[in-house]
User: What shape does this take?
Amino acid sequence: MALQKSIQFKPLGFSSEITINDAYFKVTKVTGDKSCIECQLSVFENKEQSVPLYSNIYMFVPNLDDNFIKQAYKHLKTLPEFDGTTDC
Assistant: This one.
């Protein structure tokens, strides 16, 4: 599972923002315990890329009866910055 959305960001060393149409967002790491899960979300230019453009960490309180990666995507889609994302 992954998410897809067009983004604008300013790469390190650039003086202006660039646009990536249909960027690929993938949870690349999940750590934590029953009180808090940290998920690393990496952003790629497309599905075929292996080196992320950048990564961020997001946290949520897990449901112990469900898959943590699935929960990470569900949590991300509740955040305003992920409005308009599509599953892929």
